[in-house]
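Hey, resending since the last one bounced:
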Amino acid sequence: MFRRINDWLHLWLGLISGIVVFIVSITGCIYAFQKEITSITQPYQFVQERSQPYLSPSILKRIAEKRGVVINAVQYPGPGRAAIATYRDKKTGYIMIYLNPYSGEVLKVKELEKDFFRIVLSGHYNLWLPREIGQPIVSWATLVFVALLITGLVMWWPKNLRKANVDKSFKIKWKASFKRVNYDLHNVLGFYVLVGALIIAITGVYFGLKWVPRSIYWVASGGKSMPAVRGTIPSDTTAIPVQALLYSPEDSVWSRLNQEYKGKGSLQIQFVQKKSDAIVASYNPGQGTFYKTHTRLFDRYSLREMQGKTLYNKPYEVSSGADKLVRMNYDIHVGAIGGLAGKIIAFLIGLVSASLPVTGFLVWWGKRRKAKRGR
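The structure tokens again:
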């Protein structure tokens, strides 16, 4: 009875979620090598290194704002890379202006919503639907996929360890009929990617269902509540010193941190928009991952550093085990945590995951036709 219920759940949950799982998996495969592909197809991301210092954030901000916009932040991705000034347009969305950090030359103005990989990510995250509609569909379909992996394992489990059953469970019989090869592709490949697919699915649901990261953190920390992922605190001084009007406080923070980090890694300075805003600086020592990002807050008037309360307001090295686990979630999800090898593994897992709804449907369709002929 347990096996019959399990098989029934596997069938109907698979039919219900199959199309969504296919789209999410195949777009995930395409996005896996986004950084590697864009480094070749988007040469404006790079500049020739010079022995001279970078232009300060306020100067790059003024150059970018000649387009009649208000820049929110300036990022220095690291040696040999173009600086990026960003703002959000009400009509066209998020805009990135690439500039030469030595000369201020504008290299490219990119509307992120028209970028190929942004379009792919939109399909991966919300099926190209409005976010309030597509995101819950993707999240719950991914959660159903987790259930499918578990019920699939129960179906796969060999009834005994005779060689015939072991071969059927672990090997694909390539010389058999199409139906048998299709069954083996579903059965055997599904088993081999099981653990990896579970990890990618759970780390993916993390982004869509708020109770998932909270639950993971609660278990990992032994019952503690998860801190906010984003958030700022206001500047704690209200009087504006006269000398504050004579220089850019963002430049001062950037200069201080640039010396502290010795010009290595990626450093972003977020400009204040309101009188009460603090200056936000985000530093990431690595190029391919995000989990070590350290976000620091500074009083815009006194330049005193203030202690924030989010997960990223302290260095990764001094974070708790639960904090580290949550911070690594994105890099685990895309495989970046394992470098290029990790991305290749994530790509292959995504490819097999995309095939499972197809091969599963063909197995069901074949059995359905056989049953009709039998009747």
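Residues 2-34+120-224+334-374 form one domain.

Sorry for the duplicate.
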